[in-house]
Specification:
Blueprint: E1 2-11, E2 14-24, H1 26-62, H2 67-98, E3 107-110, H3 111-123, E4 129-135, E5 141-144, H4 146-162, E6 168-177, E7 180-186, H5 210-213, H6 221-231, E8 235-241, E9 245-253, E10 255-257, E11 265-267
Parallel strand pairs: 4-6
Antiparallel strand pairs: 1-2, 3-5, 6-7, 7-9, 8-9, 10-11
Bound molecules: adenosine-5'-diphosphate (ADP).
Residues 155, 159-160, 163, 187, 189-192, 200, 205-207, 212, 217-223, 246 line the site of adenosine-5'-diphosphate (ADP).
């Protein structure tokens, strides 16, 4: 995108010509576009839960309701307020990561225990999915920020649940490949159209398709995954087939115990 200024040039009151200034404003243009996308997504995504909080509180304030009904409405209000909090946290996370202000508290952690905790937390959100963990290696230590890595697998596993609305197996496979520790998160859900894959990890990107439009989201989850994995010198990739399912693979540098004790560890690289 080129912006052009035209300025007439005068000398002694006489017009000599015109000065054209060409400026490449592609970056500014992109930032502007991102900002307006951000504003429209944010307002839409925030408005939906907020209007149900408002609607249900109004009902409760103006109507005589049976206790069961009250409880039902309160549950909705609670869930929507929780969704709002999660949304706002996502927005803040992305902003912090992009400005380079995110700090990571890296320690030696067992990736399997992180993943198992995430599955235990996510399990309560579904009755139609079966979870399987296949641990194919014993070297499952990584150097990483426990909470941030948990967020990576929370986002991937909650997507696996969300985007397989008819249920099915969700399989997490942990294995070694070269000098990397890899984790596959596989579902049997909607799958992802091939043309969407290059955009999948971009902020605010959501696959546009009538099946999915009802499924809530911000398009930030995978962007956050990518940033966190990158900060751990890792990579995230995806393979998918429409109506069959998707597999997201996270690979991280492998850490091995150095001979001589628990405290001395070194990475393979
Ligand atoms: P969100 O889920 O909030 O829309 P994400 O960044 O987590 O945002 O995902 C971006 C898009 O990628 C989603 O809108 C969805 O269309 C697609 N997607 C992510 N994970 C899966 C999955 N496991 N199966 C099918 N589609 C997925």
């Amino acid at each position: 995108v080129i912006q052009v200024y035209a300025k007439p040039l005068y000398r002694n009151g006489e017009r000599q010509g015109t000065v054209f200034v060409h400026r490449d404003i592609t970056k500014e243009f992109e930032v502007d576009q991102m900002k307006s996308e951000f504003v429209s997504t944010v307002s839409h995504e925030l408005r939906t839960p907020l209007s149900s909080v408002l609607g249900f509180t109004e009902l409760m304030l103006t109507k005589e309701l049976k206790p069961e009904r009250q409880k039902k409405y309160l549950t909705t209000i609670y869930q929507e307020a929780k969704r709002l909090t999660a949304l706002i946290n996502d927005f803040l996370d992305v902003q912090r990561m992009e400005s380079g202000k995110q700090t990571y508290d890296k320690k030696y952690e067992d990736l399997v225990s992180i993943i198992e905790n995430v599955i235990d937390t996510q399990k309560v959100n579904t009755t139609i999915h079966q979870f399987h963990v296949r641990k194919e290696t014993d070297k499952t230590t990584v150097l990483g920020d426990r909470d941030k890595l948990a967020q990576v697998f929370t986002n991937l596993i909650s997507n696996a649940i969300k985007y397989s609305p008819e249920g099915g197996n969700i399989t997490v496979r942990i294995y070694e490949r070269g000098n990397r520790l890899c984790v596959d998160v596989q579902d049997e859900g909607l799958g992802i159209p091939e043309e969407a894959i290059p955009n999948l990890f971009k902020k605010f990107y959501r696959v546009d398709n009538s099946d999915r439009r009802r499924i809530g989201g911000t398009g930030l989850g995978l962007a956050i995954v990518k940033e966190i994995v990158k900060a751990h010198e890792g990579e995230v990739t995806v393979t998918s087939e429409l109506k069959k399912g998707s597999t997201f693979t996270v690979s991280l540098p492998l850490v091995t115990l150095a001979r001589g004790g628990d405290d001395e560890r070194e990475t393979d690289e």
